[in-house]
Amino acid sequence: MTAIDKVRVLVVGDSGVGKTCLTHLIANHEPLTSPGWTVGASVEVKLHEYKEGTTSQNTFFIELWDVGGSISHKNTRGVFFNPTHGIILVHDLTNRKSHENLQRWLVEILNKDGKDVLKGNELLDIDPEQFLGSTQIPILVIGTKLDMLDDAHKQKILNRTSVGSIAEQCGADEICLNCHEARSLASGTTDSVKLARFFDKVIERKYYNRETGRKYATNYGGSSMATGPFGNLPVSGSSLAPSLGTFSYLTSNSVTESLS
After folding, report:
1. pLDDT tier at 210 (50, 70, 90 boundaries)?
2. Which family does it belong to (predicted)?
3. Largest CB tally within 10 Å, which of 63, 82, 214, 219?
């Protein structure tokens, strides 16, 4: 059996922006037809080929932690923020406020305790040094509901520059897509390349020495098991199914599992 390492990526944004549909699309390569509201956090797991097509190619688990955006859970959802190896900031392209609020989400995660440290309309003065460089946390910004824009606004969004945006401030790539269309992240598209590049950065930050390109040693205690949010999974070759299921974590620390 082969042990597979994992990384943990937070998927955050306001309630209703489409985080659950997004994580399902990324993990399962198909749209989610009947999304529900996330209470606490749910986890989708996918396999990612690090630096696919090169001599450095290696398989990793990507845990996508879809954190519920309800304001009522602001003081308790911080339990899901540690550890954080990467962050996907999600906003609704039809709701400008959801993009402005990404700054609050970012400072909430960096603050670690899940509490709102910003008052009123105060904005976070982002220090790019926190996000630039191989030792800093990678960020990806994703705008959803592209299909709900009319053609004029859609073209404006796709042609716009990121000047002054949170993506520019963090040195992050930005993706705009329709989560109800599987082709949005089809292999070989610009957006799928950006997503793969982001996952590679997350993996490099946790497991690789950027100067030597060598993987850090990991200790499995003699066990050929891959660990995830759901415990240990034996993995044999590449026979693992692409979809590993969805796991819902409630803020009360009780756990419900809904395998699909």
Report:
1. low
2. Belongs to the small GTPase superfamily. Rab family.
3. 63
